[in-house]
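Archive record:
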Amino acid sequence: MTSALSELLPAREGLHTLSEPDWLHEKRREARQAVKELGFPSSSIETWKYTSLHDLKKINFKAAEVTDSTIDVTVLHKLEIEDSEEKTIIFVNGFFREDLGTYTNNVPGIKIEPLYKKINTLEKVKEFISDYDNEAFSALNVAAFSDGLSIQVEDNALISVTIRLIFIGEHKDPLLRNIKSVIQLGQNAQLRLIEEYRSGIGDYGLTNVSTNIVLQKGAVLNHHRLQNEAISSSQIAKIVASVEANASFNSDSIVLGGQLTRLEIDVALKGKRATCRLNGLFSGTGKQHIDHHTTVRHQIGDTHSEELYRGILDDKSRGIFNGKVIVSKDAQKITAKQTSNNLLLSRTAEIDTKPELQIYADDVKCAHGATIGQLDSAALFYLRSRGISEQEARALLIYAFAEEIIKAIPVENLRSNLEHRFIGHNKMSELKSEAY
């Protein structure tokens, strides 16, 4: 594949063209042109300074089509869908598979549909599809997204069931999967959402995700995101959240898989007493590259944010955390706290952590901190003196470092799965060896 990002564009614009309105055809055309002009981001762009796409350019990706959405149903047993209390929605290679999940639209107060079914009827979707801010992969998503979800929660609806979205990547060819989702919560609505990205060991695809979240006054979204795709695959994702007065966006991002992963979260706190909590945990081995960029925009006074990201890096893996807090002029009496803690398990592992504060108001409380360390040799010696093997002692100390993030996830199945993965393995590399 050449270095031009336009090589990733499918031969035709969209895969549901018969149902697409004229405005979408035009937006796709504009986005395709933007992709051709922008090309792959390079290290000369500040936000891509530490992330090289050199290896990604070498892969001859094929745009996923609806015929690629088949899968061996035995895979579903590995995902523990039947025994799960959550209502499950499944995508295969970027396409919605209504027949595989357990969710049906009979839960009062919430409507979940494939995005392409809502394009003609939901005016808000037009706004989200139009916005890609001259960012290459966002433009690629607009130009080539094949499917996604529209999630709408009515005013005052307190959704008691947890919705679990599973995006499965599984194909012999390296597929490009473009997925776009729009999540909208009405006033005082509440929803808990689990979003999982899984794949088999032999998947070499690229998942390009764009998610827009809108929380009206008093709404609460608890969003738990797990990226556990094959070590041979890659993912580039962006979440844009708009949070109105008294609303809360609570995010947990866990990254275990993928050769190259980049997740960008951009949150705008737009009304008084709007809050966001961003927690992240990432684990890298081999030559994994894991990049987190967060931006929290305090656009009005009396808004509050808190971020805690922890990275565990072994072998020659590399992690990036770039957290930016922007406080607008006259956005007084805000609070913003940002913490990046990192554990290096080898001399060849790397972490680049860069906190940024842009403050244009004077009555604010902002704090940030970053730490980089190794396993405590004294604690390791103590555990070994009690008859615990070195591998088991290392696993316990690594889990202790990750525990604050894991324990904060109020979903038992997800939390216990993560606990098992850290405590139940003696070597960090074994975390990457399981299919799904």
